[in-house]
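Reopening this one. Same input as before:
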Amino acid sequence: MRTVQISRDTAETKISVDLNLDGTGLYDNQTGVGFFDHMLDQLARHALMDLTVRCSGDLHIDDHHTVEDVGIALGQALTQALGDKRGIRRYGDCLLAMDDALVRCALDLSGRPYLVWNLDLPTQKIGTFDTELVREFFQALSTHGGITLHVDKLHGINSHHIAEAAFKSVARALRDALETDPRKSDAIPSTKGSL
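Same output, byte for byte:
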């Protein structure tokens, strides 16, 4: 099974991540940032990954280090769990509607991190959560997960709906990319022979 347990300890955060890429979408995420936990839950549920995150961060400063460092740790866990990426579909995409929001994601588990982010959020806060941290999370996930990641907002007026649609769209695209290709389950999905 493609499972991994990692930890990341810095002066700003202490994080543990348990990840099972072949799960059923079970989750237990506790970062101290309520909205972010809700988004991590969506990521796990809709990617069908089992995910447990524990983070103790410097929330007395703000949520930035917690959100970014969880993105780093989750990206590292994803990379480790995938190994040589033998047999995966590699690519995924999703056009996801959530009420007023319509978000498109396309991604490639290429090993070449690149984020294209065309998703503006109309408010600076969702509750107490800084909306600019949505991008920070996906930048960290893309960089440390080796993901070419494109996220585009096509419609949306409610920041909560837009952010949640982004997480769900990325999750559904990840689900497709992580799946085993039944026609090439023993092959690296690249003409280079490695990813």
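So the earlier flakiness isn't reproducible anymore. For the record, The mean pLDDT is 97.
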